[in-house]
Amino acid sequence: MTLEDVLLQVESGTDKALETLKEYCRFPTISAHKKAQPETAAFVRRLLAENGFEAREYPTEGGPNVVFGQMMVDERKPTLLMYQHYDVQPVDPLNEWKRDPFDPTIQDGKFWGRGCGDTKGNLIMQLLAVQAWRAVEGRPPINLKFVVEGEEEVGSPHFASFVHANKEILKADGATIEGGDHLHEGTPKIELGCKGILYVEMVSRTASVDQHSSYAAIAPNPAWRLIHALMTLRDAKGRIKVPGWYEDARRPTARELRFLKSSLFSSQALKGFWGVSEFIGGDNDFELLRRLIYSPTCTICGFVSGYIEQGTKTVNPAVAKAKIDFRLVPNMKQEKQLAKLREHLKTKGFGDIELMPAAEKLESAAISPSARVVKAAIKGSIDAYGREPEVWPWSIGASAHGFFNEVVGVPSISGPGVSYDGSNFHAPNENIRLTDFVGGSKHMAAMFARM
Amino acid sequence: MTLEDVLLQVESGTDKALETLKEYCRFPTISAHKKAQPETAAFVRRLLAENGFEAREYPTEGGPNVVFGQMMVDERKPTLLMYQHYDVQPVDPLNEWKRDPFDPTIQDGKFWGRGCGDTKGNLIMQLLAVQAWRAVEGRPPINLKFVVEGEEEVGSPHFASFVHANKEILKADGATIEGGDHLHEGTPKIELGCKGILYVEMVSRTASVDQHSSYAAIAPNPAWRLIHALMTLRDAKGRIKVPGWYEDARRPTARELRFLKSSLFSSQALKGFWGVSEFIGGDNDFELLRRLIYSPTCTICGFVSGYIEQGTKTVNPAVAKAKIDFRLVPNMKQEKQLAKLREHLKTKGFGDIELMPAAEKLESAAISPSARVVKAAIKGSIDAYGREPEVWPWSIGASAHGFFNEVVGVPSISGPGVSYDGSNFHAPNENIRLTDFVGGSKHMAAMFARM
Question: Which listed residue, of A125, A318, B58, B353, carries a Cα 20 to 30 Å from A213's Cα?
Answer without folding.
Answer: B353
